[in-house]
């Protein structure tokens, strides 16, 4: 309030508009809120997901490139002796080729999700896959990127083909079952993503312990309401695990990519 009063007559542009809105809100008794978790931000879940996935992939690829390439050795300043050709070579030399990275997606298609939400979730996932493909297709170290997109309801299904969108039907497996499946053959898995309405009881301690053992990052995207038991459980896991991120979406997982 002190800042609003101090700059109310001098601020221009975006800051001025913000202060004006704050003054109107105060006058109307609405209070001042800088973020509404059930408003516009939740509808931008797809953009948040895209940005987070690309950031994680870039960091992971940079680590792989350091392992797969090295610079030519410099002549020793102490001995003053250089081996043949050392002073003429610059840049990097590839010491290994053919790195493979994997992205796993688990998309809830249970009856409670509904066809509209399921369709939006799959379209967002395919958009992320397209962007990751563009980012890696000219990389000389990354030979292959695996996309494994598993629908799940009463069971975890085999990965679907690119572009497929199943219908919403059935019940729901529990969160520990998903984590157990994600832990299998995950050596090259850089990101594992779960998109769900999260109608679960989430065991925090055991889930956090399982996630910490995973070499890659785990992202949960849910349209559950802030303050719900499941969201609070995910937030607690996020506090305990540096490789776990939670994204809140709106009710229908509205497309925002």
Describe the overall structure.
This protein is of the alpha/beta class and 257 residues long. Helices cover 38% and strands 18% of the residues. The chain has 7 helices and 7 strands. It has helices at 2-7, 13-27, 45-68, 115-136, 175-183, 204-212, 229-240, and strands spanning 69-71, 92-94, 99-108, 142-152, 189-196, 217-222, 244-248. It has a 5-stranded parallel beta sheet with strand order 4-3-5-6-7, sandwiched between helices. The protein has a two-stranded antiparallel ribbon with strand order 1-2. α4 links the parallel β3 (99-108) and β4. α3 runs parallel beside α4 (115-136) and α6 (204-212) runs parallel beside α7. The longest helix has 24 residues, at 45-68. The radius of gyration is 24 Å and the shape is globular. It starts with a helix and ends in a 9-residue tail after the last strand. The model is unreliable at 26-40 (pLDDT under 50).
Instruction: List the strand order in the largest sheet.
Output: 4-3-5-6-7
Uncertain segments are 26-40
Strand tally is 7
pLDDT averaged over residues? 79
Q: Describe the global form.
A: globular
């Amino acid at each position: 309030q002190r800042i609003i009063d101090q700059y109310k007559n001098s601020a221009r542009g975006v800051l001025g508009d913000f202060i004006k809105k704050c003054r109107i809100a105060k006058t109307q008794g609405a209070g001042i809120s800088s973020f509404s978790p059930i408003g516009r931000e939740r509808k931008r879940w797809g953009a948040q997901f895209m940005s987070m996935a690309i950031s994680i992939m870039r960091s992971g690829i940079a680590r792989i490139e350091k392992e797969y390439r090295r610079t030519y050795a410099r002549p020793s300043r102490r001995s003053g002796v250089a081996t043949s050709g050392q002073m003429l070579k610059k840049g990097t030399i590839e010491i290994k080729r053919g790195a493979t990275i994997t992205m796993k997606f688990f998309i809830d298609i249970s009856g409670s999700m509904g066809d509209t939400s399921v369709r939006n979730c799959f379209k967002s996932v395919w958009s992320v896959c397209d962007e990751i493909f563009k980012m890696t297709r000219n990389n000389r170290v990354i030979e292959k990127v695996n996309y494994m997109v598993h629908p799940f309801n009463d069971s975890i299904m085999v990965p679907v083909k690119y572009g497929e969108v199943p219908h919403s039907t059935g019940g729901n497996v529990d969160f520990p079952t998903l984590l157990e499946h994600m832990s299998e053959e995950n050596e090259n898995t850089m990101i594992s993503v779960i998109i769900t309405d999260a109608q679960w009881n989430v065991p925090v301690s055991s889930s956090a312990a399982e996630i910490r053992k995973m070499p890659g990052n785990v992202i949960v995207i849910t349209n559950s309401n802030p303050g719900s038991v499941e969201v609070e459980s995910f937030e607690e896991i996020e506090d305990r695990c540096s490789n776990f991120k939670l994204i809140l979406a709106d009710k229908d997982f509205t497309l925002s990519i």
